[in-house]
Sequence to fold (224 residues):
Amino acid sequence: MVRQWANRLIMLLVLAAIILVVIYAFEGKLFGLQDRKAEGSPTVVEAIEKIRGEGYVSYMIDERPVADGEVAFFLRKTPSGGYTIVAEYVKKIEKGWRWGYGGSFGASNYHPGLSDAEARKESFFAMYMPETEGTEFGSSPFPMYYGIALHPDISRIVVKDPTGYEKQAQIVPVEQNFKLFYVFMDASQGTKFEITGYDRSGNIIHQVTQDESLPSNGSVTTIN
Fold:
């Protein structure tokens, strides 16, 4: 009789433990307790580095407020000593900040510290950040073009869609021969754009046509 009661007690304890595990797992999934990456971070940089890795943000260039958060533009120093130019959307939540979506680009000739002679051999590079609505990342302020202008005479950058509608990019100088630019687009504008860099007198320094629907993200220089 004692052994039967002992066996029943053990079975009840095991059953109770299983029920507690199931409840904890369910609540953890329901309230996001199992995914620490979904938790808020106290700063934008910490939210980015929670996903990208510690030390990912080397030099913050600009933080642009947008609906539900901000887009951070910064430099990341690579192990080889080069730089990548990064744009990351970080969402403001009830308890801090949470990473949403982002991307980067880099090239050996795109970095601070270029002389005038070196910079005049370059122009600008524009990267397209696609719309994220309907993807696993959810809503974001994208699409957007952002990039770096190196030519010292470039003072204005305009993005035009096939209908002729133009948007002027925001330019943020880092130094004379290294300027960040960005412009938020509308998804209804399609995927083909003409991007033009002008000097202060309105002369074209560089112009490209980019069709973002092409697999290679095709860019054709029309004026240089």
Observations:
- The chain is about 20% helix and 40% strand.
- The helical segments are 2-31, 44-52, 116-119.
- Confidence is low (pLDDT under 50) at residues 12-34, 218-224.
